[in-house]
Amino acid sequence: TLAWSTIFIGLPAILVGLLLGPSTYARDLRQRLAPVAHHRPEWLYGGAVLIVLILIVWEPVPATRRLLTILVFLAVIVGGAYALRKLSMEENPDAGLPPAVVDGPSAGDAPPGGASA
User: Fold this and answer.
1) Are 63 and 1 in contact (CB under 8 A)?
2) How many angstroms from the chain centroid is the CA of residue 101?
3) 71-93, pLDDT tens digit by residue?
4) Contact (Cβ atoms closer than 8 angstroms) between residue 78 and residue 45
5) Quick one: how many helices (H) and strands (E) in the chain?
6) Rg (the chain; Cα; Å)
7) Which end of the chain has fewer surrounding CB within 10 Å, N or C?
8) pTM, rounded to two decimals
């Protein structure tokens, strides 16, 4: 079971390494994640923590019942999310979310109460 636990813990580290690598696929994925990484990092970190929570509940290997293993796994996943965000922001400094649609009066509308300037 120790061998399976090591493999299970090592796979996310390998995946994070691939996402942070120089391949075209990794760069394209980082470019797509850039707006979220810039403006909504809580989604990125929330996803990382959600993965860890799923593994704690699922317990695919006995090592996921140990606090130390859970903390190591959490550090690997959240550290990878941090590195992914940092690299994405460095490669795409001008990435932004599409403009939000705001419900309300436009600039040319009269102020409330019918008074005009």
Assistant:
1) yes
2) 24
3) 988 888 888 889 999 999 899 88
4) yes
5) 4, 0
6) 21
7) C
8) 0.68
